[in-house]
Amino acid sequence: MRHNCLPFRRFRISTPPNLPNTRRRAFAGLLASLFAAATLIATPIAAQAAPLTKVRYTETIRSLMFTPTYVALSRGYFKDAGLDVQMNTAQGNDKTMSALLTGSTDIVLLGPEAVIYVANSESPQKPQIIASLVAHGGFLLVDRNVKATPATFKWDDLKGKTVMAYRPGSTPDVFLDTLLRRHHLAIGKDLKIVNNIGVTARMGAWIAGQADYGIFAEPEASTIERQGNGKVVASVGHEIGPVDYTIFAAMAPYIQKHPKVINAWYDAIARAEKEVAAESPQALAKEVAPFFPGLSQPDLVASLTRYRHYNIWKTTPTISKSAISAVQDMLIAEKLMKPDQRVSYDRVVAPELAKRSQ
Q1: What pTM value is reported for the model?
Q2: Which one of 200, 222, 237 terminates a domain?
């Protein structure tokens, strides 16, 4: 960029020789001040950095499943992309989607089934997926028997038992039910499911003795083990296989009005996902620690190590057509939607993300 200013010329400032010393010093100071001012005028002023765009962001729960997001926040990747992110935790997919539909938040993190449900609803405004975060379900099956081990666990062990699930229709609940069917276990006949306990009350209910088995995310699962209240015996998500478990979504009008924000969000998450895939649990624990103030570094490392073992996190925010189809297959099998309600990929995935995912 060219600047219209006079060429800089070197010259010497001379003080009149016949002035007294005090006046000579004052005159020299005046000339120096004038010279400095002239230099500032002649020097082009650097363009000020553009102000950050505020984004109201709501996550469904606080979990180490969402480590790439916390890394992006901790390392300033959103700010690098021009975003000032204000985070809130809603404690459940239903509350998270409600916040999005009512306009009290801009971008949410929740299960993809919520977007599909709204696509089939009478709501005039529809949310769309803008990025993907979790590759495998992050919920782990916990046995109340502290002597249990993954090596000795069999799914038939659930027969005659009570299992603490999650909210009906949520991704954790749907994934668990799908897995039970694969192992020929009938709910109500072979085992009992408890899924009417609030998100924030689940840990307390488990410690109080409710249920023989339960599904918990990290860091709750490791906390249960550390306190001697159970043992992790299986990963629900790992057994199901790779299906985009948790996604970011925004309302379609917001996506259309703020394409730069959507692209910046994708870029910040993509940057974080790559680093999470490459870095050690020890390094990641330092980054996520501010978001889990009650946990020690060794506790965080243990939880992150387990998730790394199960390949929980995505390495790119793209989402495939097969992933959207697989989620709907499970919803139909659970009778949470009818076969003729299947929605197309383009209806639930934002256009820009669809292009990136090709």
Answers
A1: 0.82
A2: 237
